[in-house]
């Protein structure tokens, strides 16, 4: 441990707790901030919902109160991606068994305004 009598203790030499751990706390905060920005820019998430950057710093002093362990955890709370939705029709197959068919915007084989053709609907495969 450094002799505290030799440590210069003026306002110019003091550092923020965020600068401790050789800048590791700031580095983690910057990493999580990047995740937040990417989440905000993701068009699959709700735009107008808040995101959070959480920096938790825990201090554990020893019994003599001369040393303390410091542990910093940096987390972000982001928005989940919006759900992808579809619609299934419940019908019967040629054997009379229940079949679940994905709904489509148009009748299969029909052309849209751009010349594309509606594919046959997908039938849900059930594991037995």
Kindly describe this structure:
The strands form two sheets. A two-stranded antiparallel sheet has the order 1-2. A two-stranded antiparallel ribbon has the order 3-4. The chain contains one helix and four strands; from the N terminus they run αββββ. The chain has one helix at residues 24-41, and strands spanning 52-61, 68-77, 88-92, 98-102. The model has no long low-confidence stretch (mean pLDDT 86). It starts with 23 loop residues before the first helix and ends in a 26-residue tail after the last strand. The longest helix has 18 residues, at 24-41. It is of the alpha+beta class and 128 residues long.
**How much helical structure, as a percent, in the residues?**
10-25%
Q: How many beta-strand segments?
A: 4
Order of strands in the sheet with the most strands? 1-2
Q: How much beta, percentage-wise?
A: 15-25%
For the residues shown, what is the average pLDDT? Answer: 86
Distance between the termini: 66 Å
| Radius of gyration from the alpha-carbon trace, in angstroms | 29 Å
List the helices and strands and how they pair.
Blueprint: H1 24-41, E1 52-61, E2 68-77, E3 88-92, E4 98-102
Antiparallel strand pairs: 1-2, 3-4
């Amino acid at each position: 441990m450094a002799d505290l009598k030799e440590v210069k203790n003026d306002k110019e030499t003091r550092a923020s707790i965020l600068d401790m751990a050789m800048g590791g706390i700031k580095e983690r905060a910057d990493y999580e901030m990047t995740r937040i920005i990417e989440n905000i820019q993701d068009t699959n998430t709700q735009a107008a919902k808040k995101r959070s950057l959480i920096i938790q710093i825990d201090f554990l002093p020893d019994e003599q109160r001369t040393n303390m362990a410091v542990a910093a955890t940096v987390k972000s709370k982001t928005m989940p991606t919006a759900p992808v939705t579809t619609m299934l029709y419940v019908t019967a197959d040629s054997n009379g068994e229940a079949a679940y068919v994905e709904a489509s915007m148009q009748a299969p084989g029909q052309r849209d305004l751009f010349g594309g053709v509606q594919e046959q609907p997908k039938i849900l495969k059930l594991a037995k």
